[in-house]
Task: structure prediction
Amino acid sequence: MPNSVTDSMCLNPIARTRWVRLCCLSGLLGSFLFLSGDMLFYGTLSSGAAFHPYLEMAHRPLVQLVIGGALGPIAALFSAIGVGLFYLTLEPGSRPLAYAVAVLLAVMMLVGGAYHAVYTVFGFASKVADESVRETLITQVTSLRDTISYPMYATGIAGTALTYFLGLWKKTQFPRWLLVFLPTSLSMASSAVPGYFLAIPAPFGGIISGGWINGSFLLFFAIATCVFWHSETSGVQKSPSSN
Result:
């Protein structure tokens, strides 16, 4: 009985490469739209220490906040297609697990579209003049955002863990060195080492602090596009445990 590696190798490598390229471009576009939304919300040429997203959004035009939030669901659709890259490149290691990775990360992206859109409401709340009312609204919107984030984080962590497992221990077409640039891991750096972001001087501090998460996705898909664009994804990379 043929295993998943053999089944994968029987697929047309040219067609597979074209699908990989499509996923890379779709992920690249989705990440760019997400990052554009961030910049519309609170992109600023300040230092990291001086960056305060709510203060920035309080001075943004309403139409800018609306467009920034509306980009979220659109970006999420392109990004959900983009993570098909993981299925196509991890499939030789295990088709069911590769499928699970793609589904989990696609759910993360789709929920992330709603998470992103909520920041428009933060912008609206930040404009309220009465401090007591403003703080109450921001607390309420934060509760909504955090509730939305739970399935996003759960699916993202699970999909990332499976990606590392397949990439490190199975025969796949996903370069092991590319695991270093997994955006779900890079994006956590802002929480893990917040002091570093506060130390970034102007004019890059505000841009990097405000766009780090979606910028990590943009970086990953940009690298992946370069890696897979001119190479056929027909070769299977052996894991360290392989003979």
Observations:
- Residues 108 and 154 are 8 Å apart (CA to CA).
- Residues 1-9, 238-243 have pLDDT under 50 and may be disordered.
- Residues 13-229 form one domain.
- The longest helix spans residues 131-169.
